[in-house]
Amino acid sequence: MPKLSGINHLVAVRAFEKIGFRIVRQSKHIIMSNGERFLAIPRHNPIQAFTLGGIVKDAGLTVEQFRNLL
User: Fold this and answer.
1) What whole-number distance in Å separates Cα of residue 25 and Cα of residue 32?
2) ω into 46 cis (within 30 of 0)
3) Radius of gyration in angstroms for the set of CA atoms belonging to the chain, rounded to a whole number
4) Is this prediction's pTM over 0.70?
5) Are 41 and 9 in contact (CB under 8 A)?
6) How far apart are CA 41 and CA 44, in angstroms?
7) What is the pLDDT of residues 1-51, one digit of tens each?
8) Are the C-beta atoms of 11 and 5 separated by less than 8 Å?
9) Residue 51 · residue 60 · CB < 8 Å
């Protein structure tokens, strides 16, 4: 499985918006939903690669699919 490097949280939010996720609420984390799944994206810059990999997996994507969205 290819590795992800850390990216800015705003870049991650834009990538997930491209596949139908919308921001539900914001605080220390940005909560996004597509009606079926919820994602919690931390407001860290950059988001660590391990954390980002888990978020991508929770979204039902592979690393390659996520990279294509960036």
Assistant:
1) 7
2) yes
3) 11
4) yes
5) yes
6) 9
7) 457 788 999 999 999 999 999 999 999 999 999 999 999 999 988 998 899
8) no
9) no
Secondary structure (DSSP) of 9-44: HHHHHHHHHHTT-EEEEESSEEEEE-SS-EEEEE--
Compute the residue count for the chain. 70
CA angle 21, 27, 33 (to 5 degrees): 15
DSSP code of residue 19: T
H or E stretch at 24: strand 22-26
When pLDDT is cut at 50, 70 and 90, the band that residue 58 belongs to is very high
| β-bridge mates for residue 5, sequence order | none
